[in-house]
Structure formats: C-alpha cells, structure tokens
Amino acid sequence: MIVITSEYLDKSWDLLNANSVLPTQFSEWDDGDAYTLAEIGNLPSKKIVDGVIMLQDDVAKDYQIVIKLKQELESEKASIYQSPNGIKYEVSAKYKKDGVFEVMDVRVENVSENISRRRHGVLETNLLKYKTVLIVGLGTGGIAVALELAKAGVGGFILIDHDRLEVGNVARHSAGISFVGRKKVAVAKDLIQEIDPSIDVEIHAAIADYDNNALVQNAVEKSDLVICATDNRPSKLFINSICVEMNKTALFGGAFRRAYGGQVIRVKPHQSACYHCFVISMPENEADREISSQEDAESIAYSDVPVPIEPGLSMDVAPISLMVSKLALQELITDKESTLHILDQDFEAGWYLWINRPEPNTQYASLPPLSHSADEEMTILRWYGVELSKKKF
C-alpha cells in the first residue's frame, strides 16, 4: 500500500503541472509492505525511498516508486484525485522490486477532512479548530491531555516546559524510548502533529516562573484556556495569579503520591474559587502530590530527611488526565452551539476528586469496595465534585 495526501498534491500542483514530474520521498514500513508520504507527519521512517509523481506515461527507472495521474477514469475502484483546476485524475502506482516494476495499491487521503469526519458523531465539524490551549507541564499528565485535545480537534497549542524526557519517564509518558534526551515540548509537538499535521503548535522550553513572567503572560493572553499540569505549588500559584489577573479560565490537574488518586481544580476568575483559595481551604489535599522526579523530591525535602521518588502507574494517572480533557472540552465549547452542552450541569463544581485505591495511612484508607458500596457513599474509582468557596486576601 502507498499513501499520499491530496494536500500535498494541491500544494505541489503548479510544479507538477508545469514539469509533468514531481520527485517525492516516501517512508518505507515493514520491509516494503507500506509506503507513506515522508512529509505526512513529523516522524518519518528510518528508511526513506525516492519516488516520483507523473502526468506522463514513461516509467521513471531511477525511482523506486512511480505514481501516475491520468485523466481517463477506467475503474470505479481506482483512487481519484481532483486537482485545484477541478479535473479528476485516476491515480495508479508501481514500485520496483528486484529491478522490476510491479503494481501496488495507492490511496490519496485528505488528512484534515478524514480526521475531522471521525469526530462528527459528537463534535460538530471544526468546532475547535480555531481554539488555542496553553499547557504548562508536558509530563505524563500534560502530554496525555494535549493528545486527547488534539484528537478532539483543537487547532492550536502553546506548550511550556523546561524539562527533557528521561529513560525513566518512558514507563508512563506517551513518548517512547526513541525520544529520550529531547525537550518534552519538542516531543509533544511531534506527537500532536502526528495526529494532525495542520495543528499549530508553539513551544517554549522554559520554566513557568517569575523570571519568565512576560513569556507566560503573552502565552496566557493568546490562549482560550490554560491547563497547568506541573507538579509543584509555586508554579501552580504563579499560573493561577496570571490567569486571575488576565481573567482566563484555568484547569489544574495533579496526582496524589504514588498516584493513589488525584484531583482537578477549575478556576473561573472572579466567579469561582482560585487555586490560592484551594491551598488555603484544603492545605492537606493540596500538599498531597506525586513525587515523580528528583527535582520534586528536593523541592520539599528537609535537609536531613530525604523524600523518596515514588511515581504511580500510568493507568492511575490516566483518569485525572481524561477528566482534565473533558473539562477542557466543556470550557472550549462555552461560546459554541453543541450537543455536548448537555454535560454543563455535570461540571458545575470547582474541585473534582478521584481515588484509585484505598491507600493505607490516608483519609481514604477505609473507603468501601466499589462492588459493595451504596450509591451515596464515597468509594474508589468514582469522581466526586466538590464546591469551593472564594477567599478574600
């Protein structure tokens, strides 16, 4: 199977029409079982082969793949490409194996249209295409939220994180071992654009703190929603203060230690409690957070008492990331007509709590088993919405 895109042909049409040939590179996969346009995404194959797209009959012997476009339509099952001038072309392909050209199936895909069509059952066409989301922190939780929103059709992202992907991160992060050593924001950009190459992604390898106040303020100003997925209090309070000042809704997600549970706080400036309010009202809950790196451990350890690094499982972080994504989606459609507004009444609380397991030595250790609990009881593996009151400072 060979896959090219109508977007690529549209972009290159003037050159192809003028010269009748268009040299094109393809990614080879699975020992020649499939070839895809090399520039279809940010992650091409390790093996690139040379091909050509032609409007003439001659077979180009110097290329491994030859794709031909002709106006005469001979088969209803053939791949069809409609050029910018409205003319339809039948698309066929040959590839060279052991020096001999053989026929190979070829598809012409409209990437943006086909991806969007898969969301039509729930989301109206391109509903989120012109929305921009700022995500601060691209660790396990942040990258999962980014990818879910990209799949939902969000058209723009601003990403801020100073950290690099380490080998240990691969146990939970959406990126695999091939990405180790790279800045997490750069990794996130590649993964997002692997979902849809048309998504606009702006990245900043920087710490979200007062030293970078102007950068963060500018990012907040350009965004429709802010998601803070960092794992320390100073950064969350910093993001909170800017969002309140700039009247921008923000979501704060985080896991408890060893990811036995987690929480999401939604801040609607001047309408709901802010993250500072949460710190004051629920100091014990706010302080219960995952220690997933040496930096996290050092930030809260006493000089004579080391703090162990105890990250939880990816599957235990996933419910928190998905809840952040759901709340984000609901916020992004606030000014849109959508059938999803049926969920508005389900997301009226400011604080959402989730428990993965009854962790010993916590206030949730005696929760009843999920299978034996009554409907009104708090138990594991259920979300609970809690109202938070605003505080005056």
Notable traits:
393 residues; alpha/beta; eight-stranded mixed β-sheet; 27% helix; elongated
Note down, in words, how this protein is organized.
This protein has 393 residues and is α/β, with parallel strands linked by helices. Helix content is 27%, strand content 24%. It has helices spanning 6-19, 111-117, 140-152, 184-195, 213-222, 233-245, 275-281, 283-287, 294-300, 314-332, and strands at 2-5, 21-29, 34-37, 48-54, 65-70, 79-82, 88-97, 100-104, 106-109, 132-136, 156-160, 200-204, 225-228, 250-255, 261-267, 351-355, 383-386. A hairpin with a 5-residue loop joins strand 14 (250-255) and strand 15. Helix 3 packs parallel to helix 4 (184-195) and helix 3 (140-152) packs across helix 10. The longest helix has 19 residues, at 314-332. The chain starts with a strand and ends in a 7-residue tail after the last strand. The mean pLDDT is 89.
- Number of helix segments? 10
Q: Give helix % range.
A: 25-40%
Structure class: alpha/beta
Number of strands: 17
Low-confidence stretches: none
Main sheet characteristics: 9 strands, mixed
Overall pLDDT score = 89
**Shape type:** elongated
